Structures are given as C-alpha cells and as structure tokens.
Amino acid sequence: MVELTGVTRTYPGGVTALHSVDLVVEYGELSAIVGPSGSGKSTMLHLIGTLDRPSRGTVRIDGHDVASLSDRRVSALRARRIGFVFQQFHLAAGRDALGNVADGLLYTGAGRRERRRRAEAALARVGLADRLTHRPHQLSGGERQRVAIARAVAGDPPLLLADEPTGNLDSVAGLGVLELLRGLNSAGTTVLVITHDHEIAQSLPRRVSLRDGRVARDV
Ligand code: ADP
C-alpha cells in the first residue's frame, strides 16, 4: 500500500524532518506512528498522503510512484485512494453531519441524492445513523470525530491516515474512535495512526517509532 524508499524531507530554511527513511506498509495493516514532538511524524504522514513531496527518495502509494504523476493525477489518487482524519476534526460548522460527509464525495461527480445516500450509509457505519441532521456544535467530541471518519471513508478509500485522531477526546471517546478504526481495518482498510497515546500505540499490531527524523524502532 505504501513504500517509502530513501525519503528525505528538508524544509525551506534548512530543517531536515526526515532522513532517508525506508518504510513498507502492506495492504491491510493497522499501524501506529509514534515518537516525540518534532520527530517527523506529521511530515511522514503528509508525504504518504501525497500532500507534500520528498526532497529526495521515492514515495509509492498503491503501486504509483507519486513523483511520476501529474498534479491532476496525484489529486485524483489522493481523492480516491486516501482518507484523512485529523485531531481537529475539520468539520464545516454550518453543515449538518450528513452535509459534511456528503460534501466529501463531491470529487466523485455523483449527484446530490447519491452523495447523501452514501453519506447516510457511512454515518450508519460509524454509529451515527441517528445524528444525520445534527450540526457539529450539537455533537460531542467523539461524535464529531466519527463524522470526520465517516467523511474520510465514505468513498471507500483503501488507505486511511489519522493524525492524532484521539488527541482532543477524553479516554472513553478515544477508545471508541480506536474501536471504529479497528473495525474499518478488519473490513479491509489499511490504517496508519499517529498517536501520542502509549496505551493506544501498544494496542496496535505494529508501531513505527520515529526519532529525529529516522525510524528508531519498528515492531
Ligand atoms: P511531529 O509530527 O513528530 O511533531 P513534524 O513532522 O511536524 O514532527 O516536524 C519535524 C520537524 O520539521 C520539526 O523540527 C519541525 O519544526 C519541522 N517542520 C515541520 N513542518 C515544517 C515546515 N512547514 N517548515 C519548516 N519546518 C517544519
């Protein structure tokens, strides 16, 4: 699903956030990316998410060498193959849950009714069938993150990238979100989670530990 080969990322100004990193993530994995603040976790997730390009080295996603694709094809790869979940949820405040998830399907070219049908199915999948018309401020933190996850998976991407998805949640809501990610993984989605939470990291099958921009441990 993901193959990083000799990936280095140096930002303008000179900070090298990743130093020649090699990483293979197989289809169907559920893995944590861990490490102290500043160790390169977000940089790595941005590169895997095709939101950024390496200074050196190769990023392959689902068999595609990202550098060989035009910007348009990279956007299409990102839209169709990768779902994103962030610590801050990033939901539109004025849109209800159904609208937030349906808007995430605009790239598919599906009509409004079809988008809403698929959004409803995705919200049911995350346990929010009874919250379709709630707006973000009417939802708990855990419910908001579920809406964000529904939006990320509504188009059935094979890869889900989550950056501290439980970082703004209490431990009960966080465990609920983790259970949801596990369920999606069991159903076939490859899931990569950045987490500071040791308990969560320990509970996942694989932990890639970054330190100073290098993979320090991978167990
Ligand atoms: P983490 O997610 O583990 O906290 P990051 O990948 O965000 O680590 O950051 C790794 C290093 O790269 C840090 O030293 C950070 O300050 C630097 N960095 C991250 N993003 C940028 C940027 N856009 N421009 C310059 N430096 C950056």
As residue ranges, the low-confidence spans are none
Write down the secondary-structure element order.
Answer: EEEHEEHEHHHEHEHEE
> CATH superfamily, called what?
P-loop containing nucleotide triphosphate hydrolases
Heterogens: adenosine-5'-diphosphate
CATH topology group: Rossmann fold
Tally of contiguous helical segments: 7
- What composes the largest sheet? 6 strands, mixed
Provide the number of structural domains. 1
Number of strands: 10
Q: Whole-number radius of gyration?
A: 17 Å
Describe this structure in words.
- The structure is a single chain.
- 34% of the residues lie in helices and 26% in strands.
- The chain has 219 residues and is α/β, with parallel strands linked by helices.
- The chain has one domain (2-218): 3-Layer(aba) Sandwich (Rossmann fold).
- The strands form 2 sheets. A 6-stranded mixed beta sheet has the order 6-7-8-3-9-10, sandwiched between helices. The protein has a 4-stranded antiparallel beta sheet with strand order 2-1-4-5.
- Strand 9 and strand 10 form a beta hairpin.
- Helix 3 crosses helix 4 and helix 5 (141-153) packs parallel to helix 6 (171-186).
- The mean pLDDT is 96.
- The protein binds adenosine-5'-diphosphate.
- Adenosine-5'-diphosphate (ADP) is lined by residues 11, 13, 15, 17, 35, 37-43.
Relevant terms:
single chain, 219 residues, alpha/beta, Rossmann fold, six-stranded mixed β-sheet, four-stranded antiparallel β-sheet, 7 helices, 26% strand, binds adenosine-5'-diphosphate
